[in-house]
Amino acid sequence: MQYVVTSAEMRRCDQNTSEHFGMDSKVLMERAALAVAARIGEWKTCHETTRAPRALVAFGHGNNGGDGVAVGRILTQHGYQVTFMSVGEGNVYSQLARQQMDIVRAYGYQIDTFSNIRENKSQMDWDIIVDAMFGIGCNRPLEEEYAQAVGMIENIKKVHKDDLLVCAVDMPSGISADDGQVCGTAVHADMTVTFNFAKVGQVMYPGCEYTGKLYVEDAGITQAGFLEKMPGAFLYDEKVSDLLPERVSYGNKSTFGRILIIAGSSQISGACTLCATTCYRSGAGMVRIFTAAENRETIQTMLPEALLDTYTTDAEEEDFEGTCAALRKAMKWSSALCIGPGIGTDAVAHCLLETVLREYTHSIILDADALNLIAEDESLQQLLREYQTSDKWVIITPHVAEFARLYGSTVSECKKNILTWPRVLAEKYRCTVICKDARTVVADAQSSQIYLNVSGNSGMATAGSGDVLTGLLGALSACGESAFKIACMGSYLHGLAGNLAAREYGEYYMLAGDIMKSLQQVLPEK
After folding, report:
1. Could you identify which of 190, 263, 390, 418 might form a hypothetical disulfide with 212, taking C-beta atoms 3.0 to 4.6 angstroms apart as the criterion?
2. What gap in Å lies between CA 201 and CA 330, rounded to an integer?
3. Over the stretch 301-336, which tens digit does the pLDDT of each residue have?
């Protein structure tokens, strides 16, 4: 697990490190600068020339500017030809930035201004640009000179392309560290060297597209600096074998879960087969499918391992009791249940979902049409609010459009608030929420933290991908972990499998079934 921090959390940790533990801020700044210079040195090694590399250090008035000046000083000592460019009107600098500027001048180097550099265009032939104008401090549209400096860097990048390295110090200027939003305009960095912890804005869209290759370097600040008030977001970066509990060698079919899949309709058969097959392929001991009678032949052909119950879809509403009786029998057999993929939103689907929410006694995963039904029916919403207890949990898996229906807002507003609204919805329904978007966010009613999933790719935006995730979650329900951890693990594994599928088939070509097949390479052997 790796913490992902906001600007306020990072400042608090930095301040605690200096004031509570007594670490000198100048030492921390020097370590940060050395880390940036080392990464630039690696790039230089791969682009070796017979002449000394030319570097521009664009720095602002805050401590991030001090980092940049220190980087430039170290580069000069390594033989680079460095131009120091101060950006921003006025002459008020932070104490650390001023100290670094004094050190550079003491070594005999000049510090120029943005206006002078811009006027003397003959100097604009650099191999490396170090962006140290803002760091994590950007939270509003860039003021005029800063915006002009960003424009200059972007124009130089367009001309020189891959022959130029743009290295951001801590954050690309113009990107909010708190949510990844662009503050009017922003630097497209080739790489960003950040310190101690990744920032939320570096992993969320669109900020991650401006960050380039991200390096998280140790500059002397540790988790101890949070003084036990830990950050509110995290991501996974460990091996899957370290994340999943070991599969016991003495287990039987029941040990690994009896999962009931309520999916599919008279018009849709693929949803239940994808979901159920993934559930089996992810380690479930037994899978039982409850679906429309029209799907019998397809399931018996494609997944003969599954137990199967079917219902007729042409029954009158007063005849649903037979369907519900069969469902009750299947529910008693199961240890966990998935409902929603492809079931539709008609009367029979409503009856199935209502029966589950009223009568089931184990944990459930709600997906797709189950969520659409809940969004439209206050009685189902109340049943969902009352469902989770100490003995059973609920995971809901809305993509952002389904999330908007449940939340009662627009998709665009949900996207803007994706870091906060999933927890609001989780608290409202007392459940775990997997809000699926370009970056999936997992929130839980019982947790103060959110999980940011950075695995996955655009090829996973394909029909059936959510069915695969639901089946995977169903299998993971037998591992004995909390709903929150199961949701986090499932999202991570699903994305890893999607990355493998994209590597083999390409993001344009891949199907949901390719994601399912790729789970074989993701899941540990034991």
Report:
1. 190
2. 46
3. 999 999 999 998 776 665 678 899 999 999 999 999
